[in-house]
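Chain A, query sequence.
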Amino acid sequence: MTTSKLFDFSHLTIAERIRLAQELLESVCPRIEDRPLSEAERREIERRWEAFDAGRMTVTPWDEVRKRVFGQ
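Chain A, predicted structure.
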C-alpha cells in the first residue's frame, strides 16, 4: 500500500479508513449507478452474477457485513 504524502491515515482503524473511502467516493459521485466501471470490473460483476444465478456462490447480507466491518 502506498502512503500518501499529503495525508496520513495511519492513525485510523481499517473500518474508519473504509468509511472515509466510501464518503470520499460518495462526495465525488453520489449515485452508485453513475460511478464508472472498468471493463474488468464489468466482467467480474457479470461472472459473479452468473455464478449466483447458477447457485455456485453464497452471499452474506449487507447488514451482517456492515456489522462485521464497522461493528454496528
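The helical segments are 14-28, 39-53, 62-70. The mean pLDDT is 86.
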